[in-house]
Amino acid sequence: QLQLVESGGGVVQPGGSLRLSCVGSAFTSDDYAIGWFRRAPGKEREGVSCMHYSSAASRYADSVQGRFTISRDRAKNTVYLQMNSVKPEDTAVYYCAAEPRRPWGPCPTGQFSYSYWGQGTQVTVSS
Q1: Phi/psi zone of residue 2: left (φ > 0), alpha (ψ -120 to 50 degrees), beta?
Q2: Which end of the chain is more exposed for a tag (fewer CB within 10 A), N or C?
Q3: What is the pLDDT of residue 70?
Q4: Which H or E run contains 38?
């Protein structure tokens, strides 16, 4: 069973940067879609970014486009979310998720498309 573990959360000032990591315990192949999601206090969980693990083709929510970057290191079974120019509204618990999927078409952005989830890591943007 695939297990995902996020890390890298913390407190950061507005305008600062943070890099989140998501380590997968057993990527049996490259045919996975990986998603980053977040849940802010009092709000529904929303998609932030996704990628096909094999091709690295990615998508971003409008709210983070140009500020966040998703990437992966196959050798480390790790997917990253680089967060730059963070804003207070980026404060949330961030989750990574994975789903076995061929890299056909765009990666899915909806949470119900993913079967495997990490436990989440808190990101707080505050001065």
Answers
A1: beta
A2: N
A3: 97
A4: strand 32-39
Residue 112: strand, helix, or coil: helix
Q: φ, ψ for residue 40 (rounded to 5)?
A: -85, 155
pLDDT of the residue at 25: 87
Report which residue type is found at 102: R
Q: 81-114: buried (b, 16+ CB within 10 Å) or exposed (e) per residue? A: bebeebeeebbbbbbbbbbebebeeebbbebeeb
Cα–Cα distance measured from residue 45 to residue 112, given in angstroms and rounded to the nearest whole number = 11
Q: Look at residue 26 in the predicted model and tell me its pLDDT.
A: 73
| Nearest alpha-carbon partner for 93 in 50, 126, 45, 60 | 45
Residue whose token pair is 């057993």 = 26
* Bridge partners of residue 46, in order along the sequence: 38
